[in-house]
Amino acid sequence: MRPVIVITGGTGLIGRALTGLLVRKQYRVHILTRQPERYSGTDVVSYFAWDWTRRQIDGRVFEGTTALVHLAGANIGAQRWTENYKAQIAGSRILSLAFLRDFMMQNGIQVQYFAGASAIGYYGCVTDDRPRSEADPPGTDFLARLTVRWEQTSQSMKAVAAKVGILRTGVVFDRREGAFPRMIRPLRWGITSPLGTGRQWIDWIHIHDIARMYLFMLENAVEGTFNAVAPDPLTYRQFVQTTAAFLGRPCCLPPVPGFLVRWLTGSSACLALEGMPIESDKIRSAGFEFHYPQTEDALRDLLKV
Ligand SMILES: NC(=O)c1ccc[n+]([C@@H]2O[C@H](COP(=O)([O-])OP(=O)(O)OC[C@H]3O[C@@H](n4cnc5c(N)ncnc54)[C@H](OP(=O)(O)O)[C@@H]3O)[C@@H](O)[C@H]2O)c1
After folding, report:
1. Residue 238 counted as domain residue
2. What is the CATH number of the domain that holds 81?
3. Would you say residue 99 lies in a domain?
4. Into how many domains does the chain fold?
């Protein structure tokens, strides 16, 4: 019988890539979604309803489950961070997981492994050139504080999971969805302007590698917290230069001033305007091998038509 993996937010960018990989590796996937009616399952992928705001869940999702992956969360780049949206960003990650933990405890459900998403926002919204490892302390801004609580809640899953692993994920580069197409669009039009100072680092990871990394964590029951970024971060200016060269565009036009980005997007502007280099040594020492370690290889794949 195929082992069953439950994925919250399995309908999202990373969840879909991970589901595809798991199915190819002979797993069965149970996806927890707020809108199961939107999806048609297959003989190996099934959708189950949950609504953490009402503390409701279709408990059949846990039948035969060996591991749980928590990817659910309101998208942090989707809209301005109003107080209301900040509460959604936090609740959909932290309260949803606490609900899941409580439900599992009340019903005596145990899994062998829990994998939790986290984000490099942990290190704070600042720009400098000092590489950060997992041992560095968290920042103090909204995203950093959120990430600390998110990771604490993931650790509390030890009450229902034999082992717990956490991936502090960088900017996931996918051809069609997320940050990458938004960053590429102006460059395709010949608008080769870095954002802000252009000195902020982009700690990216190819969609294929983040999905593979979750699989690696699951299959090896890897414990601990790991930076999930490729070993070749680059500054925004370097990203624009490299991509413009790929696209055959002249580089570079004057930068888009940071104040304009802040005016347009509010406090979430830090996602685009700030960043430091982040190391991936720990996950590589654990045995993970990147398929796309270098920016140029990733761009070659992502920009092919
Ligand atoms: N993509 C990145 O660049 C990146 C970087 C760092 C960290 N991460 C983290 O990795 C996780 C997965 O990322 P992703 O890019 O796959 O996210 P995504 O595409 O935005 O999908 C997340 C899923 O979460 C569910 N969701 C959205 N709002 C929710 C809410 N209010 N309550 C409960 N569930 C909700 C949705 O599933 P349903 O609508 O089916 O319920 C959605 O498909 C997230 O926690 C994200 O913060 C991602």
Report:
1. no
2. 3.40.50.720
3. yes
4. 1
Distance 249 CA to ligand 1 centre (A): 33
Residue minimizing CA distance to atom 23 of ligand 1: 9
Instruction: Tell me if 179 is assigned to some domain.
Output: no
In Å, how far from its chain's centre is CA 101?
21
pLDDT tens-digit map of 95-123: 999 999 999 999 999 999 999 999 999 99
Q: What angle do CA 282, 284, 289 make, to 5 degrees?
A: 160
Interval between CA 117 and ligand 1 midpoint (Å): 9
**192-251 per-position pLDDT tens digit:** 999 999 999 999 999 999 999 999 999 999 999 999 999 999 999 999 999 999 999 999
Measured from the Cβ of residue 142, the count of other Cβ atoms closer than 10 Å reads: 18
Pocket test of ligand 1: the residue of 8, 13, 61 to mutate, having most ligand atoms within 8 Å of its CB, is 13
> Does residue 168 fall inside a structural domain?
yes
CB 94 within 8 A of CB 102: no
pTM over 0.90: yes
